[in-house]
What we know:
- This protein is an all-alpha fold.
- The chain folds into two domains: 2-30 and 146-219, Orthogonal Bundle (Endonuclease Iii, domain 2), CATH 1.10.1670.10; 39-140, Endonuclease III, domain 1.
- The chain is 59% helix and 0% strand.
- The protein has 13 helices and no strands.
- Helix 2 (10-26) packs across helix 12, helix 3 (39-48) packs antiparallel against helix 7 (92-109) and helix 10 (150-158) packs across helix 12.
- The radius of gyration is 18 Å and the shape is elongated.
Amino acid sequence: MEHRHRSTHPERVLRARRIVRYLTRAYPAPKSELSYSTPFQFVVAVMLSAQCTDKAVNKVTATLFKKYKKPSCFKDADPALFEKELSAIPFFRNKARHIRATAKMISDERHGVVPRDPRILQEMPGIGYKTAHVIVGELYDSWDGIPTDTHVKRFARKFDLTDDTDLKKISHDLERLVPKKDWKYVNNGLVLYGRYVCKAHRHDCAEHPLTKLWPPAGERWPRA
């Protein structure tokens, strides 16, 4: 019961809402920086981005997505060649296998249409809570959860919005703190803020906009 009480402490609620107020102004139209031209290409890009930078993913998909566009294209890819095409990405063998299996499910069972329901997406290989909510948020502007990646985890702990380190538990802590209408701003907002304003290495961030909202964050450098 102590954890549940801490996760919705009034000071945390107020701090979270002030942070989100800044994010809604700074990043009013949240969009991923992953490159894609079809819905399933975005699914693939997000799956590839696990433990990998968007920049590295975009470099690989610049060529890959000229060849593979629809789920059926990925489903029918030659397994060995497809692995080779992804070999610059960490964990490329597992990711290649999961992408092809998910492509088959969406192609065969969903007529090639990426599901709007994150619960259905989470039943597919290689897609967890974070990935599913990033996908439906980007493709359908539907936000039934807050995806937590390394940036969101870092800031949730830097600003003392959670006691957890598990990504899904952090998501649920943030969902309790932030009104649902503002969930869409949290992930993309903190990702962009983390990339371009307050990077992960230890530095003086006292003058950064969010640190000014809660100065103790300037001395807190949790592991990503």
